[in-house]
Design goal:
The protein is an alpha+beta fold. It folds into 2 domains: about 1-35; about 40-139, no CATH class. It has helices spanning about 5-35, 40, 95-105, and strands at about 50-55, 65-70, 80, 95, 110-115, 130-139. The radius of gyration is 20 Å and the shape is flat. The N and C termini lie far apart (about 70 Å). Bound molecules: zinc ion. Zinc ion (ZN) binds near residues 84, 89 and 119.
């Protein structure tokens, strides 16, 4: 069977482009993690961080899930980025880096706060999540 020289490469090229896009997004995320580096590099005085997070549906909705993140000096600092649990949310999320930074700067052992997804205006607040967090730091 002879396959037309024009058709086959065209089809292949299209498939490859889709995969390339997906891979590019995946690589971007891996790159962000690599760029973030270990906790010890960003916060050398910290020996451990424990963060308890409660995720809520929307900005005022019921509890979606709870999670605890434990970090040691070798942990990737990118763990401080939490995903938004909103169904349609792609680029949003919660970045606790600045909250931790502030606690460390003030030599504080704990801190609490609330956060709404940074992309909440993208599809309406109901398609995003919010969190309550409780951070404990050991020096
Ligand atoms: Zn979101």
């Amino acid at each position: 069977m002879k396959i037309s020289a024009q058709e086959k490469p065209a089809g292949k090229r299209e498939k490859r482009n889709t995969n390339t896009e997906k891979n590019a997004r995946r690589l971007e995320l891996i790159q962000k993690r690599l760029d973030a580096g270990p906790l010890s590099e960003r916060f050398p005085q910290v020996s451990s961080i424990t963060i308890h997070i409660v995720h809520y549906y929307g900005t005022t909705g019921p509890v979606f899930m709870e999670q605890t993140v434990n970090m040691v000096p070798s942990s990737n600092v990118y763990l401080l980025h939490m995903q938004c649990m909103g169904g349609k949310c792609i680029n949003g999320g919660f970045d606790l880096t600045s909250s931790v930074e502030e606690l460390v700067r003030n030599n504080k052992k704990s801190g609490k706060g609330k956060m709404v997804c940074g992309e909440k205006d993208a599809y309406g607040a109901s398609n995003h999540a919010s969190i309550c967090y409780d951070i404990s730091i050991k020096y």
